Amino acid sequence: MSEAILALENVTKWYDSAPGRRILDGLNLEVSPGERFAIVGPSGCGKSTLLNILGTLDEPSEGKVIVDGIETGGLSEKELSAVRAEKIGFIFQLHHLLPQCTALENVLVPTLARNDEASPKEASERAKALLERVGLADKFDNQPSELSGGERQRVAVVRALINSPKLLLADEPTGALDEDNAANLMELLVELNGSEGLALIVVTHDRSVAESVGTIKTLNRGKIETTS
């Protein structure tokens, strides 16, 4: 079996304001390359907290987070930023596109944080190819205000893919979309999971979105279990 792209070892999380309440409680999880699943659970159970820890945007109170063989606990913020830039793509409920930038420019923003020697021309060519792939070949020069909600979220997906991550994390990615656009987005994410070979984790409260991913894991009382 391939080495896990992501692993949690005995991860526990609490906040100083409520030290007696464990958001996550001794959680263990391994994510293999190319794997995909959705995480569901009651409101306030800690789904977004878990996703932030998976993506190294937050730290566990106890336990280890290992990304592609790298234990993140002892890394500096600069080193963590490099791990995120090179190995993890993020999609959020709100697209967070820069309003003054075109679709193409928004996609290229994450390439500015890379430490490798990829040329701007190579990055631009990949960005254009990905935008074409998601049906935005004629939108390179459009600003977010000139795009529909579904188009803006597709730009956000391409931005998450531009650095060829091994892991894609999506936090309520369809929350701001209508039913048709939500279905189209999830179809796109599942297709990219297969064609790009990246692991996909989707946090959602929407059961139909979770079912479209395939495997469903439930987070409840700080523990996670596979339910389907």
Describe what you observe in this structure.
It is a single chain. The protein is an alpha/beta fold and 228 residues long. The protein is built from seven helices and ten strands. The protein has helices at 47-54, 77-87, 103-108, 120-133, 149-161, 179-196, 207-213; strands spanning 6-13, 24-31, 36-40, 62-67, 70-71, 88-92, 167-171, 199-203, 216-220, 223-226. The longest helix has 18 residues, at 179-196. It is globular, with a radius of gyration of 17 Å.
Chain-wise SSE layout:
Layout: E1 6-13, E2 24-31, E3 36-40, H1 47-54, E4 62-67, E5 70-71, H2 77-87, E6 88-92, H3 103-108, H4 120-133, H5 149-161, E7 167-171, H6 179-196, E8 199-203, H7 207-213, E9 216-220, E10 223-226
Parallel strand pairs: 3-8, 3-9, 6-7, 7-8
Antiparallel strand pairs: 1-2, 1-4, 4-5, 9-10
What is the residue-averaged pLDDT?
89
Structural category: alpha/beta
The CATH topology corresponds to Rossmann fold
User: Order of helices and strands, N to C?
Assistant: EEEHEEHEHHHEHEHEE
The whole-angstrom Rg is 17 Å
- The CATH level-2 architecture is identified as 3-Layer(aba) Sandwich
Number of helices: 7
The poorly predicted ranges are none
